[in-house]
Amino acid sequence: MSSQLACTVSDPSTHALADIERQLRWLLPENLYAAAWVNPSPGTLMQVFGHLRTLQHILIDYVPRDVYEQPPQPGQPRYLWQEGTLLFTDLAGFTPLLEARAAEGIAGAELLLKLINSYFSEMIEIISKSSGNLLEFTGDALLVQFTTGDPRRDIAQAINAGLRMQRAMSAFQRIATQQGELSLRMRVGIHSGRFVKADIG
User: Fold this and answer.
1) Which end of the chain is more exposed for a tag (fewer CB within 10 A), N or C?
2) Taking the C-alpha atoms of 70, 73, 78 and 82 in order, what is their torsion angle to the nearest 10 degrees?
3) Is 128 exposed, middle or buried (0-12, 13-18, 19+ CB in 10 A)?
C-alpha cells in the first residue's frame, strides 16, 4: 500500500496582491475600487494614485509622524522619553463665539464650521512650513513637537511658529455676529527639554 503526500506551494506574489487588494478596499471609494479591478487602465490607476497621495498628505498633516510611520498595535500603549521642544496653543474668546453662533441656528453653525476649518487650515500650514510635528488636537487647542536633535534649533522653530500663528490671528480679530463683534486670540506656551510621549489608543 502506498501513500501520497500532497504539497501545495504558494506563490508569494499571490499573497502580496491579496494584501494590496484588502488595503485598497478600505482606502478607495467604491466606484474607484471597482474600476481599478475591472478596468485597470493607465487613467484609472492614475486616479488611484492621486487618491492615495491625497490620503498620505492628510495623514502627514493631521497624524503624528511616528504614528503615521509606525502605527501602534491596538490595545498596546507605548511611550518614549524624548528631548525636544513642545508648543501648545489654545484660543481665547472661542466660547462666547460658540454661544453667539448657537443662537443663530443652522446658519450660525455653518458660519462657525467655516471659521474653524479656516483657522485649522491656516495653523496646520504654518506648522508644516515650520517643520513642526502636530501631535494632537484638543478642542480648539494644538500640541506641536519640534525634535531636530539640535535644542537651539528646536526652540527657534517653535518660537517662529508661535509668532507666525499669532500674526495669522489677524484674520479672526473682527467677527460679526448678531450679538455684536467678537474676536479670537491665541495663547501660546513653549516647553523645551525632556518629556514623555505616549500613544494610548
Assistant:
1) N
2) 10
3) middle
Distance from C-alpha of 86 to C-alpha of 147, rounded to nearest angstrom: 9
Helix (H, G, I), strand (E, B) or coil at 150: coil
Q: What is the CATH number of domain 78-199?
A: 3.30.70.1230
Please check the confidence at residue 20 and state whether its pLDDT lies above 50.
yes
Alpha-carbon distance values, 154 to 57, 148, 159, 181, 194 (Å): 23, 6, 9, 37, 13
Question: Greatest CA span in the chain, whole angstroms?
Answer: 96
Domain borders along the chain are 14-62, 78-199
Q: How far is the C-alpha of 41 from the C-alpha of 92, rounded, in Å?
A: 52
- The one-letter code for the residue type at 178 is Q
Q: What is the rounded distance in angstroms from the CA atom of residue 90 to the CA atom of residue 197?
A: 20
What is the C-alpha separation between 164 and 123, in angstroms, rounded?
Answer: 9
Q: CB within 8 A of 120, min separation 6: which ones?
A: 137
Between 38 and 165, residue with greater pLDDT:
165
Write out the three cell numbers for 198. 505616549
Question: Could you identify the residue written with the cell 508569494?
Answer: 12
Across-strand partners of 124?
A: none
Classify residue 180 as left (phi > 0), alpha (psi -120 to 50) or beta: left
- Burial level of 81, CB count in 10 A (0-12/13-18/19+)? exposed
Burial status of residue 165 (CB atoms within 10 A of its CB: 0-12, 13-18, 19 or more): buried
